[in-house]
Amino acid sequence: MSELSILEWHAQFVRQARWTQGIRNQLYRRARLLRAIRVLDVGCGTGVITHELAQRTRGTVTGLDHNRAMLEFAREHDVEAHYEWGNALQLPYPDQHFEIVTCHLLLLWVQDPECAVNEMARVTCRGGSVLICAEPDYGGRIDWPDLPIREWQIEGLRRQGADPLIGRQLRALTESAGLSAEIGIHPSLWDVEGLQENAESEWKIIAHDMGPDLDKTDWENARKQTQSAIERGTRTTYIPTFYALGRKA
Question: Which pLDDT value is given to residue 205?
Fold first, then answer.
């Protein structure tokens, strides 16, 4: 399967942001985003969440990522935020520089998530907030019909160096960073309309994650079975996706 283009990644980030919108709205209010002077979005990708943050605060919002192509896309499409290249494991900012630091579907991709959370806490002001807006846990994925999608995603993510079980680790990660954190989970059971809307993109992402290890015949058979179940109204998909609201004392 071919690599995804920047436009395809951007479309995927837009879909993911839509799935977690409700909880993010609550996190922004509780962290007093509107009053923040400086906000950092770590692992900003094409700037979907960063742009949202910039629209909801009077302060300055910075998006940071190590992917230069995605940063270029973000700069071209968003003039409200600042975008900088950097490493989540060694943030190029002084201690206590931001009132709010956020990330969204980042920790599953970094090599050392504990270091990343420690860095986010380091650059957060005392009394500020670290918002880990969404981290999935594919080990808890449930599908009906009962197909090997969970196993494919876990295998495919691990093949790329990601941690598909990162969600269940948020409490340990925030505790290690010295944050007082509230851990929760997104309501992530899609309705029939959502299943239909996201079906094509989900299968494309699964194929991308699995790469050359994917048996195309098994993949196509599973795709047809899930589409048939969607059309009959019997398809169920649940992916536990955790969030954390961390406070720095």
Answer: 83
